[in-house]
User: What shape does this take?
Amino acid sequence: MKFKEALGIDVSKKTIDVQLHLAGIHYKFDNKVKGYKTLLAWVKKQTGLSLDQLLICFEHTGLYSLPLAVFLSEQKIIFCMESALQIKRSLGLTRGKNDRIDAQRIAEYAYLRREQLKPFVLPSINVLKLQKLLSLRERMVKQRAGFMGSIKEYKAMLKQKEHKLMFSVHKKTIHFLSKQIDILEKEMIDLIQADELMKELYNLMVSVKGVGLILASNLLVVTNCFRGFTDSRKFACYAGIAPFEKQSGTSLKTKSRVSHYANKKIKSLLNLSASSAVQADPELKAYYQRRVEDGKSRMSTLNIVRNKIVHRIFAVVKRGTPYVTLYQHAA
Assistant: This one.
């Protein structure tokens, strides 16, 4: 379908600012179902186009953009949901910022890239539930880490006999948060096991050494059950573990390095996964030790292991069979 117009939407908590790119018309609607219906009627009146001739684009803003995405998906209307950083960097140097300007910039971005942008596919209800559970768990883990750090400082500086209540409250809070985290993780497992597709993908992923519940669950969410990413190299780039060279003529040439533009949470989880894998997987352990003994950097070697894990995950998902360790059978 050849899109004849682009609609940029800047989503905030209570309202959405919209901009028709070619028409140059701006308007504001409520960020709720009634406002979305009014928006569709307004677009038809202003453009005279059918909705399949209109490319709708807005930033991924989590909870604020989710109701709009759900509504458009239910209406079977094509739309794109892009990262704010991608839109910002694509437009070069810009000055000024408000909701109307943001809507204009999103509309311009969508129209200029109307042939390249891919329609957004809304995750299933279970994937969205898993995403919320992961978000809540992450918040609780951070809170628990804060209390654990505080009690460690107290032990170094204060006498427990003189501050019994302070230590008691901290210990009880840590215990409570740990218990709630366990409950959340059990709920995550139950949710995955109840969904046939997620269950199958999860079992394939955890067959790879170093991959556990949290990494596998996050991969289900960020890849939309491997619909959003089908290529391991593209995902490695997204996760910030793919090295890129930096070279220009004869004056600039540096070692290949990973980019800081990445999904930092996934990158961190892959780092933990790699650290675990070099202990649990005989093949990766031998590989890691051999490179380190040869004088190679530990971090670069660990990054190679992270890439190996990503490639293994995508391989088992594509193949549909669990990972088999062949190193132990080698002569």
Strands lie at 5-11, 15-20, 25-30, 54-59, 79-82, 243-248, 252-258. The chain has three domains: 5-112, 125-194, 232-329. The two ends are 57 Å apart (CA to CA).
